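User: Could you go from structure to sequence for me? I need the amino acid at each position, not a summary. Structure tokens:
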């Protein structure tokens, strides 16, 4: 007997297929095999679609993480500048020109204390 490629497909068992699709209970062997192959094809397409959606979501999350990492790096730089300014004599003329915008409210608070 000649073995066909379709017989090697990893299809769900006939019993499980018929339990899920009772409309094929009276089908002959060829029609049943065709229905099982169609079912497998539809399942694989659905899984591929789901995989593509998850991949797209993953790429979006990777991009968002990179942006947040870049934002944190910029914040670190601003914080270092702020610390440098705060450890110096902040009463020098035009010191506000050297201070990041985010640090100005904190320096104003320091000025009120001093």
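Assistant: Here is the amino acid at each position, in order:
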């Amino acid at each position: 007997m000649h073995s066909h490629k379709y017989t090697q497909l990893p299809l769900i068992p006939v019993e499980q297929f018929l339990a899920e699709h009772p409309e094929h209970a009276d089908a002959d062997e060829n029609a049943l095999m065709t229905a099982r192959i169609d079912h497998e094809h539809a399942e694989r397409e659905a899984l591929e679609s789901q995989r593509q959606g998850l991949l797209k979501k993953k790429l979006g999350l990777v991009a968002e993480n990179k942006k947040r990492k870049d934002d944190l790096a910029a914040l670190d730089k601003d914080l270092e500048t702020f610390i440098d300014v705060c450890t110096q004599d902040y009463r020098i003329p035009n010191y506000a020109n050297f201070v990041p915008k985010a640090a100005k409210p904190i320096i104003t608070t320091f000025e009120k204390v001093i």
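One structural detail worth keeping in mind: The CA atoms of residues 103 and 109 lie 10 Å apart.
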